[in-house]
Amino acid sequence: MNLDFSAEDHAFRLDVRRFLEANLPSDLAAKVTNNQRLTRDDFISWQDILARRNWYAIGWPKAFGGPGLTPTQRYLFEQEYGALPCPHPCQFGIAMAGPVIYSFGSKEQQNRFLPRILGNKDFWCQGYSEPGAGSDLAALRTAAARDGDHYVVNGQKIWTTWANWADWMFCLVKTDTTVKPQEGISFLLIDMRSPGITVRPIRTLDGDAEFNEVFFDNVRVPVDNLVGAEGKGWTYAKFLLEFERFSMSGSARAKRMLRELKVLAATAPSVSPVIEDRLARLAIELLALEYMELRLLSRMNAGENPGPEASKLKIRGTEVAQEITRLRLDLTGPDSLPFDAAFLDGEGDAPFGRGTAGGAVAAYLNQRKLTIWGGSNEVQRMILARQVLGLG
Ligand SMILES: Cc1cc2nc3c(=O)[nH]c(=O)nc-3n(C[C@H](O)[C@H](O)[C@H](O)COP(=O)(O)OP(=O)(O)OC[C@H]3O[C@@H](n4cnc5c(N)ncnc54)[C@H](O)[C@@H]3O)c2cc1C
What we know:
The protein is of the alpha+beta class. It contains 13 helices and 8 strands.
């Protein structure tokens, strides 16, 4: 794609490429390429490498210790990052809790939490969804009742990714049941070591246990951990989701995976015209996705927020990513099997199969989640219909 980047932007891009090439450990790169499971230590050690160069919280402004990248530099960073098999960094601290705290938190909260997030000292999780409150998040029921200088939290969260690893949770709770649902929600920071918290794993289709149920039984949370004003949590939650969706396109990662598919196709004994057609369609869709991303980027360069149009990136990016994992199975056929849990956990070699076929089934199963989390794609379509197209 022929883009008009400045000489400074080109130099930045080269700097990022050289840094990542020199610092990405080969064992981590192999795990990502083979769709093997990453441990908490894998994430921590990789994020430490990024944090030392101040390229962990890449979206943060200089005022809060971040690198202060322009939207264009951030885009270029993500392009270079996705071009290599780098572990996808855990987003809950750097892309969610952090921006909410520096935008709406008190000075004390900023001083306490931001340096630790920036330095990769704490692992965060997101406590939004509950049984009965997923797409309809305002229906959440986890209650926080004021008791002196504490809130007492009771209730349950579900699908909480990495709650089993987390030091902290940013959590939506009900602090008032007498007003409109959206107006009674508050944004609390909860220490996951607090007495009364129970975390139970939920197995995903690929056998992993990356997400959990979290139960709160009279958990005492200091009032100091309330972000912003009581009852304004809905505003902060929505602010955060727009940014979450903008970063969900994953176009650079998809380009790398498409390149891998093309290599697999080129080395296959035969490839049907149907597969060739699907490869070509994917390449076209990826190009369209990238243009969409760049259009939003130029708006952000002009100082605008991503807005409801970020939903387009979420929809197309996740559909493309799922089609890539599906096509990989169709390309490698029986070589993608068997499903070997030991291999996924990094023990032993790929069971059999051509090149990177190992882990393909696990990736296919795992990526089903993409069109559900971060707000399901059906709900994103409703957002586009209402807020962008002005329908109904
Ligand atoms: C792998 C994974 C990790 C997750 N991690 C987290 C996490 O860390 N923290 C967290 O808080 N949550 C997390 N979630 C939860 C996720 O945000 C919810 O699953 C999602 O918001 C959908 O909610 P739900 O599962 O309750 O489905 P429901 O809301 O019950 O939806 C069921 C179906 O109905 C459709 N639907 C619902 N409402 C509408 C509507 N208005 N219009 C059209 N269709 C509609 C949905 O698209 C879906 O197909 C995770 C989910 C997954 C799969």
